[in-house]
Amino acid sequence: MGVCCEHTGVHEPAGIAFGGLLASGADAERAPASLLGVMDATQSTYRDRCAEAPPAIRAAYDGACYNTVSETGVDCAGGVADLGDLDPEAGGFRESAARYSAVVEAELARGRTPFILGGDHAITPALVAAYAGRGPVHVVQWDAHPDMYPDFEGNRDSHACVAARLLEMPHVATITQIGIRTETAVQRGIRESAGGRVTQIPAWEAERCPAFLSHLPDAAAVYLTVDMDGFDPAFAPAVAHPVPAGLSARAGLELVKEIGATGRRLVGMDVVEACPDDRDNRTLILAARLVHEGVATVLARR
Ligand SMILES: [Mn+2]
Asked: Is residue 10 one of the residues assigned to a domain?
């Protein structure tokens, strides 16, 4: 239902949160996917407005503007249980991380695939930790930065250390990094010492890459972490650390669809580092659009 502003005559739609994908009532109990916002940017090193992103993403992806069908033709209406948004814990990041991990673990235990809106990238190791004991997980990281520092300015929980922390988890079988264009010598050293466990597709190679994941096993369980700065700033200008010459919105969506089109399974996904401060919300809408396509892969395999 829309309302018209008397003074300007501008039509302002009432708004349907998160593209109409969210389930209500009993449908939420049966939904195969869930959405969790994590309003935590405490481990950011530069701009930190991504803490405000989860409610902004829900609002920006307005179902009055978009329909519920994915690009692959899957109607995702009501497919997602809404878990709301979490604030950081008062006791510090380790306490917060334990909570984020516990929520994901509970979702996996009840058979739902969790989709998480950040927040900064530091939340990802906590989210992936929840998959321990459920078989090998192949992490796919869409990012301008390798996030491979052993610590950043003394902080091991920094959003610059995400991949280094993931490598310490025995259940993380591989990490595929796509869109990287800022690797330092320290980070390259850690990647190379991890051997075949890390595959890096830098931005200049990803640009002409028709398939990103052909090196993964056929039945791989894939956890996708999307740092919005993997995209070119033209597509995602409102990120904490914009880096020129990144990847296209089309390439990002094709990556999500590639996971769904093979025997691989998307077992979880986060979208992080988006800030609610571009004029037309294009960063937030793209973030939601990626989740929409990810949810479609979960619904399609039921
Ligand atoms: Mn990152």
From this structure: no
